[in-house]
Each structure stands twice: as C-alpha cells, then as structure tokens.
Amino acid sequence: MESIKSARFKYYAQSVEKLKTSNPSRWWKQIKSLGGISSKSCWYNQLLSNDIPNCHDLVEVFNCFLSGLTSHFTPLKREEEQLDFNVPGEYLIDANKVYNELRKIKTNKSPGPDMIPNKILNVFAYELAPVITDIYNSSIIQGVFPMNLKRSIVVPIPKVSLPESVEDDLRPISLTSQISKVMEGFTLTKLFAQIESKLDTKQFALPGKSTTHALTYLLHTILSSLENTSCSARLFFADFKKGFDLVDHNVIICELENLGVHPAIVRWIKAFLSNREQCVRIENSYSSWKKTNGGLPQGTKLGPLLFAVLVNSLLKDWPGRVKFVDDTTVLEIIPRCSPSFLPIIVDQISDYANERGMRLNPKKCKDMVITFLKYKLVENDIFIGGDVVERVSSFKLLGVWLTNNLSWDIHVDNILKKANSRIYALRLLKKAGLSPLNIVHIYCAVIRSQLGYASPV
After folding, report:
1. Contacts of 455 (CB under 8 A, 6+ apart)
2. Under 8 Å CB-to-CB from 440, ≥6 apart: which residues?
3. What is the pLDDT of residues 299-314, one digit of tens each?
4. Per residue, what are the HEC states of the chain?
5. What digits encode the pLDDT tens for the residues 203-234?
6. Gyration radius (Cα) of the chain, Å
7. Cα-based angle 268, 270, 274 (whole degrees, multiple of 5)
8. For the chain, which residues make up each domain, given as ranges?
9. Which of 372-381, 383-392, 423-432 has the highest mean pLDDT?
10. Residue 40 pLDDT
11. Which pLDDT score is estimated for 336?
C-alpha cells in the first residue's frame, strides 16, 4: 500500500503539478482524471456500430447530420462588394481598442481553425492590433467578412453520460477563430446599443440579467398569483428542436432590418453568417469540411443575441413569459372554474416557429400544473402536431428543479448527490498529493459552485 501511495505522490509531483502554470487546461484534465470527476471511458464508443465502425466514420456522420438540418434553407445571397464611405465613424475602431481586446485573450484556450495560438495574439498584441484594426474597418466599409475566419471546428459534447443517438444526444460546440471573436465583440457592442430598447423585457439572456433573474421572476409571479387561493398556475416549457442549429439566416437578417439596425451592421452580420464551413472533431479524428446554409454556431459571441432577436416578438403580448435565449417558458394563471387557454398559446408558438423555419419538439416540451385547490382540475391537453405534450410533476429549468407542489426536495437531493460524489473526489486528490490550497480551489470550482448556483431563488 505504501508503494502505491508513494507512486501516486511521485506521479503528481513529477508529471502533473508543473502543468498548473505551464498548461492549466491539461492540468485540470489530469485533476479530473485523478479524482474520477470525469469518466475515463470514451463516450463515443456508445455510438459505434456496424454502420458506424470507428470514430472517423462517426465525425462524418455527425457533420452530415448537422449540415443536413439546414440544407432546405435558401442560402444568403452574396452581395456585390462595394465601398460604403457613409459608415458612421463610431462604427470604426482604433488600434487601441483592438490591443485591449487582444490582451484579454486567455492563452490557455484552444486555437480555432486558423491554428493561431492565443498566446501569439496576446503577447504580440501591440504588433497585431493595427493589422486587425484595418481588417475590421475594411470589413465594415466593404460589407465582407474574411472567408478564412468563417470556419468552425465542431466539438460534440454528450448531453447524457451514455449517448445513444447522434441526432439527439450530442450538443455541437463550435471552436472559431479568436480573431473572429474579437471582431464579433465590436459588432456585438454596436448591435446591442441599437436594439436594447426594442428587445423583449422578458428576455433574460442579456447584459445585466441572468438565469437567476429569470427563475426569480417566474417563481415570484407564481407565488404572488397563488396567494389568491382560488387560482392555479399552468406552465408550458417550450423546446425548439435543434435550437441554434436550425436557424434560417434570411429570417435573422429580416428581423434585424425590422428592428431598424443600421444597414452597415446588417451587411456585416450577413457576411459573417453566409458561406460558413465546418468540420467535426472527436479526439484526433476530423471530418471533411462542409458548407452550411443556416444555423448559429454555438460558441460565437453574436449567436445568443441573434437568437434572442429571432424570438423577440414571440408572445410579446402575453404577460406570463420568460425567455433565456432558446429556453422559453409560458405561464398561465387560471382563475377558479375558468378554462385554460394555454393550448391556444402553444398553437401560436408553434405557428411562430414554423413561419421562421423552426420547430417545436413535442417530446421535449412539457406541461405542468401547480395548484393547491381542494377540487381536481380538468385541463385540456396540449397538442403539438398531433402529439400530446407530457404533463410532468417536476422539470429542470435553467439548472433548477421546479415541482408542481413548489417543494425544493428534488432540487436539493440532486445537488447533494452531486456534491457528495465530488467530495469523494477530493479525498482521492488528497491521496494523490495535492496541496490543501489546490484542494480548496477545486472545492470552490466543482462543489461550492453547484451549491451556490441560483441560491437567491
């Protein structure tokens, strides 16, 4: 036993500890492995079969699936390049702004498809700032976006511990060029300033708001309404099928124009979205590159705001709504002996989605009734395309479990279960030779963050 313990200490001291400063990302991966925080097994093995015999085939299958989602969309028309010297001066940037953004880049993050190390961009910020300034200003004036910066490497993240379906159990996260992200940031600031006052006040995925604000607002509205003992509450949790991956670029551009966004910004976003290419990477296997006719790459700075624009006018006249990017929750307060109008509202949501090339997923949409009335309520079922929406007694919304009796038991049990499993990981890390200070840092990262999430709710 002593030899095993000694070997653990030696392995950490000689091979792992030095990574904390030289390669923090790799150090963290080693820590998760030593503590059993992440599974050592290859999750993608679950998806291999006779039809998909190896990882190389898997990345091709997943990339074909993703690109096929939007193959029926009409690609954005490419406009003729033209100089627009009427672009407002405040839309142009100077080298000092670019320098400041380059210095903020985290050097331990993976590079994008251009393979330019983040450390190069950070360390040589002074030398690179004038070049990137010229590129961005030229792109605004000409209404173009460099093709080399439009590529994305899609890294699938399993939604469940043992994924069974390529179509349903993988979330595509896009690695894009860091230079592209810097340029996006400048456009994002200008776009948000123009549309902030026109965005839905119940959209909580905006600066100054958070998931905690969304949950607090929803529960406060429910509790305030149920103080009147003759009322009940009914919730519909909407799930847009493939969310970010099933977005028509033409609809986005139309929505931006309807919001009165300056033509120079609209042209730039149009150039940013059009003719994008992506490949899929799992471990060291890469798929071929494919063009996409739609979708918003998850991992870009503009993506969340553009999706918020897409659903901006959804149910704007219905008071009981909570939006957080692609999560939409509808609340109906039902007076005693009154019918529920929520099925009609869901029909409106479905129509809104279909008109914009989106789709509700009837299997993942849920219905919940909260009531403390003594008599049994009889609500009409909610249908989506002929499928009945399942009524549930509990639902995980924005990371918090809500129940039809407003109890926190399920949520607390889930948090404690996660915390207990990770406390065991701390014991393993202590045996591996980690210092008390490092163990405290890991506790804050993987346990206290879980315990404190949305605690004001």
Report:
1. none
2. none
3. 899 999 999 999 999 9
4. CHHHHHHHHHHHHHHHCCHHHHCHHHHHHHHHHHHCCCCCCCHHHHHCCCCCCCHHHHHHHHHHHHHHHCCCCCCCCCCCCCCCCCCCHHHCCCHHHHHHHHHCCCCCCCCCCCCCCHHHHHHCHHHHHHHHHHHHHHHHHHCCCCHHHCEEEEEEEECCCCCCCCCCCEEEEEEECHHHHHHHHHHHHHHHHHHHHHCCCCECCCCCCCHHHHHHHHHHHHHHHHCCCCEEEEEEEEEECCHHHCCEHHHHHHHHHHCCCCHHHHHHHHHHHCCEEEEEEECCEECCCEEECECCCECECCHHHHHHHHCCCCCCCCCCEEEECCEEEEEEEEECCCCCCHHHHHHHHHHHHHHCCCCECCCCCEEEEECCCCCCCCCCCCEECCEECEECCEEEECCEEEECCCCCHHHHHHHHHHHHHHHHHHHHHHHCCCCHHHHHHHHHHHHHHHHHCCCCC
5. 999 998 999 999 999 999 999 988 877 889 99
6. 25
7. 125
8. 1-40+407-456, 211-242+311-406
9. 383-392
10. 46
11. 83
The answer to whether 405 and 395 are in contact (CB under 8 A) is no
**Integer CA distances (angstroms), 353 to 94, 301, 331, 349, in order:** 40, 23, 19, 6
Cα atoms in the 13 Å half-sphere on the side-chain side of 404: 16
Provide the token pair at 327.
């999560």
Dihedral of the alpha carbons of 288, 294, 298, 303, in degrees to the nearest 10:
150
Token pair listed for 31? 């820590």
Q: What is the mean pLDDT of the chain?
A: 89
Look at residues 374, 450, 422, 440 and name the one whose alpha carbon lies nearest to residue 37.
422
* Tens digit of each residue's pLDDT (9 = 90 or more) over 265-291: 999 999 999 999 999 999 889 999 999
